[in-house]
Design a protein that fits this description.
By secondary structure, this protein is an alpha/beta fold. Helix content is 49%, strand content 14%. It contains 13 helices and eight strands. Strands 3-2-1-4-7-6-8-5 form an eight-stranded mixed sheet, with helices on both faces. The longest helix is centred in the N-terminal third of the chain and has 32 residues.
Length: 388
């Protein structure tokens, strides 16, 4: 029995350490070894583009978004704007219609989804009306840098590049300890994605800003999201999903823990499926670096929820007979105690905040798993007001 407990302890410990420390460090080393690999750009590549904005009840931000996208620096005769309204019941559609009427010189149109089935379904429906060569997708609460479309198109330099995502920049990093923790997370994750993209393909994108060829668009199940589904889909079909961090989208992070927790729960509505979404990923001889990237960046992170409870329970059971496991159990207990201390005292200590934020992230995975098992996982959700 002890042998099984020890095996589970070390396996879980490896998954946690590799996901949070080992893999990021290994990517930095790989990036230095292959430092000459760069994403090529061709700014003369300016194909026809449709910018799709998906919105559900976004009356607070949709006007700012509309004013933002018509100011994008891209040839006016090659860009169209499509607002896909996911069964909005507030003034979103009214605001869009009025804006279109007042800006007849712009190629703007509204697509109204009749039944709310979530963002991916709205994109699936609206995409069928697109006739341009490329499709850029962005969220209603994301403000795009004026050069963002030009930057995205510039890196579609070969037929094997099927997907390009931009960089999300958090504009309210210093508003709260929660938004600061999220911004720090994004900064570290972007560094990893940059190396993955240079080497082969990224393992996940960013819903604030990304693009694909219209002919390459794939109708995913509405429960899935493009962020996680698209890069893997294209890579497994022999193409590349990359990032160009010079294409920037600005957005607010959640300023209260309830908003960020809710967002992370929504992100984990498909966590069980995406531990290994396709058995082909394990074929390292065919998919090379991507198999390594996915295991470290996705599989291990998606297993944090079960790994933490496993290492906690096994160390507790082994602590009776072994001093080492007693120390390990105490360290974990102290770690979670620090998170509770932050929760109850609302301390601004940055170290307590990091511990608390990490624990919230893992707990959100547990809630996501619970929602999947109980059938509560849905393709749509209520937006976080502090991000608007």
């Amino acid at each position: 029995m002890d042998l099984i407990l020890k095996f589970l302890f070390y396996l879980s410990g490896f998954i946690i350490i590799w996901a949070m420390i080992g893999y990021p460090i290994s990517l930095k080393f790989i990036g230095k070894v292959y430092k000459n690999r760069r994403i090529k750009k061709d700014y003369s590549h300016q194909p026809t583009v449709t910018v799709m904005v998906v919105a559900h009840n976004e009356e607070k931000v949709i006007l700012e978004k509309l004013n933002n996208i018509i100011e994008l620096r891209y040839p006016k005769d090659k860009i169209e704007f499509l607002i896909a309204s996911d069964n909005s019941t507030d003034r979103t559609n009214e605001i869009v219609r009025q804006f279109i009427e007042e800006h007849k010189d712009q190629n703007l149109r509204l697509y109204e989804v009749k039944e709310r089935k979530g963002k991916t379904n709205a994109q699936n429906e609206a995409q069928k009306t697109v006739v341009t060569e490329y499709l850029v997708m962005t969220d209603a609460n994301s403000i795009l840098d004026k050069a963002s479309i030009k930057e995205l198109m510039a890196v579609f330099t070969s037929d094997d590049i099927a997907y390009v995502t931009g960089r999300l920049s958090i504009i309210n990093q210093n508003s709260s300890d929660v938004s600061n923790a999220e911004a720090n997370y994004w900064d570290s994750d972007l560094a990893i994605r940059e190396i993955e993209g240079r080497m082969q393909s990224i393992t996940a994108g960013n819903g604030a800003l990304y693009a694909c060829r219209t002919n390459d668009y794939y109708d995913f199940d509405p429960i899935l999201c493009h962020d996680s589904a698209m890069p893997t889909h294209y890579t497994l079909n022999g193409k590349r999903a990359i990032c160009n961090h010079d294409a920037v989208a600005y957005e607010k992070a959640g300023e209260i823990v309830e908003d960020e927790f809710g967002r992370k729960v929504r992100m984990n509505r498909i966590i069980l499926k995406y531990i290994i979404p396709d058995i082909r990923i394990l074929n390292i001889f065919k998919y090379r670096w991507y198999s390594y990237f996915y295991f470290g960046h996705r599989t291990c992170r998606y297993l944090l929820w079960i790994s933490h409870i496993t290492i906690f329970v096994t160390s507790l059971l082994l602590a009776i007979d072994y001093l080492f496991y007693s120390i390990m159990f105490f360290c974990q207990f102290l770690f979670y105690l620090l998170a509770l201390l932050k929760f109850f005292t609302k301390s601004n200590n940055k170290y307590l905040t990091l511990v608390y934020y990490y624990c919230v992230t893992v707990f959100a995975q547990w809630v996501g798993v619970y929602n999947i098992i109980t059938g509560k996982a849905k393709p749509f959700w209520e937006k976080a007001e502090s991000t608007r």
